[in-house]
Amino acid sequence: MKKVFLLLLVCVSLLNSSVKGQAVRYLDTVFTSVKVDSNVVYGSNFTIMGIIAQQTTRTVRQPLTCNVHTPVGDTEAARPVALIFHSGNFLPKAITTSYSGTKEDSVVSTICRQLAHRGYVAASCTYRIGWNPADPSQDGRTNFLINAAYRGIQDARTAIRYFKANAATWKVDTNKIMLIGVGTGGYITLGTASFDAYGKVVTTQYPANKFIDNRNGLPMVIEQAPGFGYVNGDVEAKVVGRVPPGGSGVPPALDTLCAPNHVTPSSKFQFCVNLGGAIGDLNWLDANTPPILSFQAPYDQNAPYIDETLRVPVAPGVSLPIVRVQGASLIQRKMDTLGRNNVFKGKVIAKYDPYKSIFDTRNGGSVNGLYPILGDTISDSSPWDFTGSADLYANSIYVSAPRSSRARALRYIDTIMKVMTPRACLALNLPCKGPVTSTEDLLNANTTKLTIAPNPAQNYITFESEVYNPMHAIELYDMSGRLVRQVAKVDNHQFNMMRGSLPTGMYIAKVRFEGGILSKKVVFEDR
Fold it and tell me: Among 38, 55, 68, 182, which residue's Cβ finds the most Cβ atoms within 10 Å?
């Protein structure tokens, strides 16, 4: 018996050292090729863009599309999904003359590809745009823009529900969803993470009543009108919304503003990443907010890093004041106060956290999830942006732009990926969670009840723990330390593992619980 126990310890040690030397899925590049399914329709809804551009007199229902990136040759049946939302100030690129504003933007396409190379399903998503920056009053501009943001949040939740409703098609785990927003997309992802009840429109605190229109005393977004029904629709876009008779919106009375899509699944997601966005009101963050990471230039002249009036660029050298919002520094400090980022607080080892000391210095101490990014100049608010051909991995001919260097931008994106991916392992409870932490807590077999039967087995084995202590994942290694079977999502106290084509012999099963890992010997005998 002592010999068997010693052999087990040696095998576990061998496994740990062997695995540490290998590429780790979700942290490292493990797939060489990525497939892109372009213009996948994840829903449809009504846009006011045609009215603003004076091309139509009614709202028009437009498809909502995404480019879905998946790893080629992947056999995993339940993969985490990342939904990425581009920048663009809710305006067409022809108006902003910017190099961002579509789901094909270089930065969002690059992040999608890099995540797919690591084993994610990653989708760059469109959303409805349209507002009138030429409105002469600040209340008018704020009204327009908060409605555009509201529609963006509705569309983000529609995208979440699309992938949940089509989980089998895309082979995704519906409980491991991450939203990433770049620039304007950061406002959308932060809003989707925090704006979960319509009442938050009228209960702002920074300052109070900021979304009440001083011209008529009405909320700038109206979920329902008394005696009529839904106007802008609910925060999830699960109901039909229309302009009531006598309404003062841009669309004509009784015109449609919102249509439902995929109403059955929930819109819940597990992790939010913000690149250069801000939040409509700091009071929106609460105990229901998922973990958040924020990357932002502290001296961004348009998006506040702390608490200032948002200015939206509408033309080269021209930006307009809109409304007070709160930026990354205040967001992450409040998330710390709420304890919402505790899932990765102090848990990432130095190997996967090479920039910790740099960011701690910039923050004046450790602030969970706050990553101030410094560009070449004080006005460089998005150094991760670049322009180039559609093929991001070929030599590109760049259009004229102040920050068009692909190599330079990729250095910033590489930093973002190095910070984001280990924390995604923790926030999404992925199988890479173990390598990210300093030591895998080895549980005591005398206090953690786990039975494996039959053992030895011929065709299958059953893992069973106590009901109140479910297993999260199971990994099976052969005696050379090679991972031969992985079940990334168990989340139950009982699981049957079929032998399949595994040869006769001894294996080590590593069973992951909330509190750590328990390793046990498994033997498959001749059939």
Answer: 182
Tokens at 21, concatenated: 């030397």
Q: Is residue 420 part of a domain?
A: yes
Instruction: Answer whether the bond into residue 207 is a cis peptide, omega within 30°.
Output: yes
Q: Would you say how long the chain is, in residues?
A: 527
Alpha-helical runs (H) found in 372-456: 406-427, 433-436
In a domain? residue 465: yes
Is residue 255 assigned to a domain? no
Contact call for residues 396 and 389 (beta carbons, < 8 A):
yes
What's this model's pTM, rounded to 2 decimal places? 0.79
| Residue 62 in domain | yes
Instruction: Classify 91 as helix, strand or coil.
Output: coil
Contact present, 443 and 516 (Cβ < 8 Å): yes
Task: Find the CATH number of the domain harbouring 153.
Answer: 3.40.50.1820
Sheet holding 34-47, edge to edge: 34-47, 60-71, 121-125, 79-85, 172-182, 271-275, 292-296, 370-372
Residues 175-204, mean pLDDT to the nearest whole number: 97
466 and 411 share one domain? no
Instruction: Write out pLDDT tens, residues 20-39.
Output: 447 899 999 999 999 999 99
Q: What 3 state SS string does 326-395 have?
A: ECHHHHHHHHHHHCCCHHHCCCCCHHHCCCHHHHHHHHCCCCCCEEECCCCCCCCCCCCCCCCCCCCCCC
Same domain, 366 and 505: no
The model's pLDDT over 161-173, given as tens digits with 9 standing for 90+, comes to 999 999 999 999 9
Residue listed under structure tokens 């977004």: 221
Q: Check residue 279 and report its DSSP letter.
A: B
pLDDT given at position 517: 82
